[in-house]
């Protein structure tokens, strides 16, 4: 049973009013994400890993230098699917309800969270990801290089932003801070975050 | 003495159609400029380190104060790598190496085509952001290698002779996800006179 690329959870042009062109998704979903899925399937074909879940493959291959290619592709398949779900047309701004309370409790305020997340995303040097995670009951902001994701580190991912240059170069060129601000103000899917937290 | 961004040694459009003018402008005026600014900001409170050249900084990272070491590694590296990169390219090139470096490449890799193929393959496989290099090792042999992000081969004691930038910002506007196409096209703009000059400095006894 090969790993599959789930469909985008919105039309590829759904984020155009919110700063991200359909062209970005043609490449990012249609080429980059797809290539990770295809590469993963090629790499695990005929091995024990082919019958495991994506999460199991990620955990089993993390920090195994002989399986680095498998880890990179498996984690990137997972990260991108999680990223698409972190986006919602007209999302963003401060969350409400229990999630708002948890953010206030662990960061002090939504503005503090926003500052910390923006800083993590802006300072991930090179390619990588910024995350909101549940680390044993405490919400934290983290950043990871290249394909590394919080599952590998034993944390529960709640929200992510892709800061590989391919994620923002078509829409924002070199202006990564503008991409980050746009994500936080117009795109964060807090329903998805709340569901992850409750799960 | 603050570090400064030198102007490009040719017009933004000079490397068309292999590298587009918009990419060159953003790459030099925004990305490279940011490395220079970030380096100067990092060194602002460390006057003892302001007189060091970027090569010196990346060769001696272990001695750089820990508080600024990571920022210096990234931004001195970024400044140095990009300065070399602009000089390693030029318009109206033949696409074939000449002189001592041509001979050394043929001796080491079998042929220029075999070398290019290996360099392209290594560059394609580099995961994430970084550089693919032709370096001269400590024992003066040629080698193809990569560095992540803005690390310089000098930090490992190897001398970079030629490097290609495979950060996505180097090629995304024209080539998007097609990194191999970019790597293959890039040979048309390599300035082999500059590579020979570096080779001569690093290995004065090499025979042409």
Blueprint (SSEs and pairs):
The complex is a heterodimer of chains A (199) and B (208).
Chain A: H1 22-44, H2 54-61, H3 68-86, H4 97-107, H5 110-123, E1 128-135, E2 138-145, E3 156-162, H6 165-172, H7 176-186, H8 190-198
Antiparallel strand pairs in A: 1-2, 1-3
Chain B: H1 21-43, H2 54-59, H3 66-87, H4 99-109, H5 112-125, E1 130-136, E2 142-148, E3 159-165, H6 172-175, H7 179-186, H8 192-202
Antiparallel strand pairs in B: 1-2, 1-3
Helix pairs in contact in B: 1-3, 5-7
The mean pLDDT of chain B is 97
Percent of sequence in beta strands of chain A:
5-15%
The largest pleated sheet of chain A is described as: 3 strands, antiparallel
CATH overall fold name of the largest domain in chain A? minor pseudopilin epsh fold
Which chains make the largest contact? A-B, 20 and 19 residues
Structural class of chain B: mainly alpha
Overview of this protein structure:
The complex is a heterodimer of chains A (199) and B (208). Chain A is mainly alpha-helical. In chain A, 52% of the residues lie in helices and 12% in strands. Chain A has a three-stranded antiparallel β-sheet with strand order 2-1-3. In chain A, strand 1 and strand 2 form a beta hairpin. The longest helix of chain A has 23 residues, at 22-44. Chain B is mainly alpha-helical and 208 residues long. Chain B has two domains: 21-87, Fe,Mn superoxide dismutase (SOD) domain (Helix Hairpins, Orthogonal Bundle); 99-202, 3-Layer(bab) Sandwich (minor pseudopilin epsh fold). Chain B is 48% helix and 10% strand. Chain B has a three-stranded antiparallel β-sheet, with helices on both faces. In chain B, strand 1 and strand 2 (142-148) form a beta hairpin. The N and C termini of chain B lie far apart (39 Å). Classes of the chains: A mainly alpha (199), B mainly alpha (208). At the A-B interface, helix 1 and helix 6 of A face helix 1 of B.
């Amino acid at each position: 049973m090969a790993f599959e690329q789930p469909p985008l959870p919105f039309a590829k042009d759904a984020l155009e009013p919110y700063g991200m062109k359909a062209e970005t998704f043609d490449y990012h979903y249609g080429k980059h994400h797809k290539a990770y899925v295809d590469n993963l399937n090629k790499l695990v074909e005929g091995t024990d890993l082919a019958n495991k879940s994506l999460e199991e493959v990620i955990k089993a291959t993390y920090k195994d230098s002989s399986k680095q290619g498998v880890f990179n592709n498996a984690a990137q398949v997972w990260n991108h699917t999680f990223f698409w779900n972190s986006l919602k047309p007209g999302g963003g701004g401060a969350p409400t309800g229990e999630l708002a309370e948890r953010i206030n409790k662990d960061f002090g305020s939504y503005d503090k969270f926003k500052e910390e997340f923006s800083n993590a995303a802006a300072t991930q040097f090179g390619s990588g990801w910024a995350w909101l995670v549940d680390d044993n009951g405490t919400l934290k902001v983290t950043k990871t290089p290249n394909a590394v994701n919080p599952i590998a580190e034993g944390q529960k991912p709640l929200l992510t932003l892709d800061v590989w240059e391919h994620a923002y170069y078509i829409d924002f060129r070199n202006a990564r801070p503008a991409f980050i601000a746009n994500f936080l103000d117009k795109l964060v899917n807090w329903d998805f975050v709340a569901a992850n937290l409750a799960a | 003495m603050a570090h400064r961004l030198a102007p490009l040694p040719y017009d933004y459009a000079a490397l068309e159609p292999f590298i587009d003018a918009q990419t060159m402008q953003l790459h030099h005026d925004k990305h490279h400029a940011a490395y220079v600014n970030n380096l100067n900001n990092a060194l602002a409170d460390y006057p003892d380190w302001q007189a060091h050249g970027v090569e010196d900084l990346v060769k001696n990272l272990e001695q750089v104060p820990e508080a600024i070491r990571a920022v210096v590694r990234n931004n001195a590296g970024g400044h140095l790598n990009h300065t070399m990169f602009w000089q390693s390219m030029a318009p109206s090139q033949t696409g074939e190496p000449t002189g001592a470096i041509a001979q050394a490449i043929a001796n080491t890799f079998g042929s220029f085509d075999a070398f290019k193929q290996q360099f392209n393959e290594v560059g394609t496989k580099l995961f994430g952001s970084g550089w693919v290099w032709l370096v001269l090792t400590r024992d003066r042999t040629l080698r193809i290698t990569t560095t992540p992000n803005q690390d310089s081969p000098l930090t490992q004691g190897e001398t970079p002779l030629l490097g290609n930038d495979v950060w996505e910002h180097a090629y995304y506007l024209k080539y998007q996800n097609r990194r191999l196409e970019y790597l293959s096209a890039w040979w048309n703009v390599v300035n082999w006179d500059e590579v020979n000059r570096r080779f001569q400095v690093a290995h004065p006894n090499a025979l042409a």
